[in-house]
Structures are given as structure tokens and as C-alpha cells.
Amino acid sequence: MGRRRQDIIEDYLAHPEKLLLKKPFLRGSTTLSIRDASDGSSMKTNCTREAVLPRIYKTVVSQERFARELDPNCHSVIFDENLPSICVKEKGSDNYLEIKFKRFGIALQRRIVEKATLCLCGNKRVHILHDPNPSEELKRNFADFKWHWEATNQDGVETRAVSIQQSYGDVGLLVYMNEANEVKTRLFSYADGYQVISHRDDNGEPLMDCVYYRTEDGVRHIDAYDDTEHYHFSDSVPLDAIAAAQDEATSAWHLDYSEVHGFSESPLVTKRGDVPWNNVQDLIELFEIIFNLFAVIQKRHGWGILYIKGKFNETAKKIAGSVILNDTSIDGNGSAEFKAPPTPQNMLDFLQSILDQIEIGCGCTFILPKDVKSSGDISGLAIQMTRSLDIERASSAVIEWQNFVSKHSRLFKEGLAKQLVASGENPNAITEFERMRVSTSFKPWQPFDESAYNQMLCTLHGSGLISTKTGVEKNTVSTPDEDVRLQNETASPSAAGPAEDDDNNND
CA torsion sign, 144 to 437 to 453 to 444? Predict the structure, then answer.
């Protein structure tokens, strides 16, 4: 834990293959055995034993598996040959034919991702200026920051970043200056062919952030960023040579170039974590199996079973799609009746119980319009109670994502200052923006009545419980520069009105 940061960086630069080392994603275990020999043993409460270093083994889950689990057309139930099918007996033979029945996956994972993303990112980011007595210059700069943040859709960029991480496990967001000296952002996703890798020093502090990818010519590349430099590595070994060796260790990495990126920290913002369905994947697979079984049963017996006593007339035709049981052992007058198959309610109840456990396990509720049964308006408390799982998960996600959104905000502020200087809008922007302390955070979303919420703010302000500034920041209709607009609006009637009258009098 005593290695110098620069020593570690120099080691990475000297051995670029180390930049590709990445901790895998883990899920569950393949064994019940515990490798700590003391587990389950008996000892006195006042005794001690030598500490055992952690040796927890879990199953590696690839990001390719995440991608397959996310796509319902790739689910394992579609390829499950153990699921029953519908068979019919050939006419005039003892052979049976299998009727093709399409199996289907259910997009629960995608829905979980969408809900988790919405609950975290559904509201605009909250920007707070940390200055108890800001100057007019600081207010204008803060308004500029918020306006450009909204104009460049940084909220949308972060929402997309959250969706990518929730889908594939990690994401990278690069803040950079384009050739026109405009601050821009770019996202890197596993689905688009990129691996995002972050390295930390012995104390857990950010060290280097990397993007690993392959171009169309088959050449592999690494873009690595530390606090000051951008390093670009490429692999000179042809793709076919690597394939022939069946080992990507066969490589010849070399540094193509390095350049100062111009930011005070690594401009690549990364986030890694488990996918939101990680704890319920087995339950989802069970749900899909039972659902497909139910579909087979309904297709086979949904119209009931026609039970016929006696022999068919030669000219009679069987009803297409019906299951017919023909009892020819009975002489005399025949009869026919429909026999109802066993009720599917037990299977439906079982499916609902599985779905309930999925909701609990992933912290996501699947409330449909049909589930809302009320003759009047639903109270805000009732809404919160039905969405308690979503709110709890989003509240935890706010903390998990705070470092991501804070770094993005800092980098955007730095880039915007450079842009304003380059464009001539504010030649002193870099110095002024350095003095501007801004914090940015997520605000969990939940359904609510906007008019009632804004009226509540008015009531609190009228009662002297909140300031005008808080009301401006918290209401749902304010623009990013609302503070400046209010100041101009307050000053205009007293300044512009009388001046115009004086001019008229002088004429």
C-alpha cells in the first residue's frame, strides 16, 4: 500500500498489456463447500484464532451473458428442448407428429433496466451553488453553467450512461474539447464494441481510466487517461496472427502518441456495478419456463375436450384445433359433450408468486394500469407505498452514482470555461469558473401531481418556511437562468418605467 502513484503509472506505460487487466463480474457459486476450515467448529467465546484471509469463490459472468439475458430473443427457454410440445397421431398410422410451437422469452430484464433508469434519472439533475452570498458575476456564471448543461442535454447523456451500465455492467463517459473548442461528451458501451477498464492505486484512488477496442482493420487499441495525459496504444500484430495463436497475449503493444488532455483529472468518467436483475435471473428463467408450459397447455386444451360416445359417421369431420376423445366401446345411441380441462388458476397463482419474488429481489415493481383500481384520486402516500421498492432502490442508487455525476459536472464546468474563453463570450471564464463551487446530484423520480407540488412550494414560501431561492430551485417550471430572470424582472419596472416618463417630459 506504499507504492507511489507515478511508479504504478510508469509500470503500466512500460507494460501496456497490464492495462487490459479487469476484474470480472461474479454471480453465485458452483459449490456449497466453504474453504475456511474453522467454519462450523466449536470454540470458547473468550478464545481467539489466527485470522484467515478471504477466499470467496464465485461464478464468473461475462458481459456477453448480460447482453443475452437482456435480449428476450436470446433467452435459454427458447433453446430448451425439455419443454413439452403438442403431438398428434397421423391418420391411418401409429406415428405421431410434433406440431411446431414457438417458445418465447419475456423481456423482464429490459423492463427492470428501464424502471431502474427512470427512477434514478427521471428528474432533472439538481445543481447547487455553494456560496452563501454570491456576487452578481457568480450568479451569471452559475446560470450559464446550468443553461449550457441543459442546452447540450447532459441530463440525457447521463440517463443513457445509467441505462448502459444497468444493461452491461459498466460504462464510460468521455468529456473532451472538439476542434471548434466546444465541450463535448461521448459514451463507451460494451454493446458498441468497447471495454471500459479503470485502475486504482493501492489506496483505492483513481489512477488510470482506459478504453479498449478494435478498429475495422483488425488492429486493437487502448486509450488510457491519467490526470494529465492521454496515451494511445496500438497492437501491431495482425488479427489473423492472434487468431492463429488462439491467445490474445500474442501482441506487440506500442505507444503511438501521448498528449496533454487539458483537464485537471482524467476526462473519462467510469461506473461499474451489478446489473439490476443479477439476484433474480434464476427466478426469471423459472418464470419463463412455467409461462411457456402454460402456453402449451392452453393451446392444446384451451377450447376444452370434446368427448364422443359411439362411432363417427364416415362423413363426419373433426373440428380443427379441438382435442377429441372418441369412445367406441359403447353400443347404441351416442352422445357428445365438452369436458373442461383442469383450471389453470393454480398455475397462474404460481406465476404471480414468482413475479412477486422477482419484484422483491430486484427492487422493482411492475404496476400496470389495470392494477390501479380506484374511483377517486390516489393520494401521494398511496403512490409512495406502491412504489416503495423502486424508491428504496433509487435512493441507494443516488449514493452509488454520486461520484460519477460529480466528476461529470466538474469536467463539464472546466470544458465550458474553455469554450467560453475560446468563443470570446467570457475571456475570464476559466478563472471565474474555478471560484464557482457547484455540486450536482440525482433526484429520484416518482409519479406526482406537479400542480399540487408547486402549490405546496407557494404555501411554504408564503408561510416563511422556505426562501424564494429554494422555491425557484425546487419548482418544476423554472428555467436554468430563473434567478437572473427574476432579478431583471424586478429591476425593469422601477428602472425602465420612470426613465421613459422623464424622456417624454423633456420632449
Answer: positive
Tell me which residue of 292, 275, 283 sits closest to 79, measured CA to CA: 292
CB atoms inside a 10 Å sphere around CB 332: 6
Contact 233, 222 (CB under 8 A): yes
Provide the β-strand partners of residue 25.
Answer: 61
Tell me the H-state helices in 77-153. 108-121, 136-151
CB atoms inside a 10 Å sphere around CB 299: 13
pLDDT along the chain (507 residues), means of 10: 83 95 93 86 89 90 97 94 70 66 90 95 93 92 96 97 98 97 98 97 92 94 97 81 56 92 97 96 95 80 63 55 57 64 79 95 83 57 72 93 97 98 96 96 80 82 84 79 76 52 46
One-letter amino acid of 132: P
Taking CA atoms, 331 is separated from 96, 188, 309, 311, 324, in Å, by: 29, 77, 9, 9, 19
Say which DSSP state 101 is in: -
State the residue for C-alpha cell 464557482: 436
**Spatial separation of the C-alpha atoms in residues 361 and 105, rounded to whole Å:** 20
Dist CA 172 CA 187 (whole Å): 6
Q: Which residues of 382-397 are buried (b: 16+ CB within 10 A; e: fewer)?
A: ebeebbebbbebbeeb
Angle at 500 between CA 498 and CA 504, to 5 degrees: 115
Sign of the dihedral defined by the CA atoms of residues 275, 281, 287, 293, in that order: positive
Half-sphere exposure of 449 (CA within 13 A, CB side): 12
- The count of C-alpha atoms lying within 13 angstroms of the C-alpha of 224, restricted to the half-sphere facing its C-beta, is 29
